[in-house]
Design a protein that fits this description.
- Strands 1, 2, 3, 4, 5, 6 and 7 form a seven-stranded antiparallel β-sheet that branches.
- A hairpin with a 5-residue loop joins strand 2 and strand 3.
- The longest helix has 23 residues.
- It contains three helices and seven strands.
- It is an alpha+beta fold.
- It has one domain: Chitinase A, domain 3.
- It catalyses: [protein]-peptidylproline (omega=180) = [protein]-peptidylproline (omega=0).
- GO terms for molecular function: peptidyl-prolyl cis-trans isomerase activity.
- Keywords: Isomerase, Rotamase, Signal.
- It is an enzyme of class 5 (isomerase).
Length: 142
């Protein structure tokens, strides 16, 4: 088996596992676009740089966007610095990939919300694009 075929096969299995975990948690992941070369995947421990736009599912109101600041948000995947829906939804992405994440309140800001911006028990929708991955040994950018 060629190495490229093996990488494709392993990637497909990984994406199936991510989809199963996401569906059990209530997170919905819609893949919008994915580059042809998707050999480097975001994994726990990587520092990822993500452009995003977040809106409330209830009324479509945008409450935050990295595009307005013209700077992607960097964070270490698996560190707990972002909401759980992001941790699960960004895992397995490759640089240049775009997804829409529909995140239930249990994986976002919970019962209380984040007043006054996010009401209690709010489902959030994020359009995300992975711009860069910094891992311990390599760097991949879009």
């Amino acid at each position: 088996m060629k190495l490229s075929n093996l990488i494709t096969f392993i990637s497909a299995i990984f994406f199936c596992l991510v989809a199963i975990i996401a569906s059990e948690s209530g997170l919905k992941i819609d893949n919008i676009s994915k580059p042809d070369d998707c050999s480097v995947l975001a994994k726990n421990g990587d520092t990822v740089h993500v452009h995003y736009s977040g809106k409330l599912e209830s009324n479509g109101k945008v409450f935050d966007s990295s595009y307005k600041r013209n700077t992607p948000l960097p964070f270490k995947l698996g560190s707990g610095r972002v909401i759980k829906g992001w941790e699960q939804g960004i895992l397995g992405m490759c640089v240049g990939e775009e997804r829409t994440l529909t995140i239930p309140h249990e994986l976002a800001y919970g019962e209380r919300g984040f007043p006054p911006i996010i009401p209690p028990k709010s489902t959030l929708i994020f359009d995300v694009k992975l711009m860069k991955i910094d891992s311990g040994s390599s760097k991949d950018e879009f």
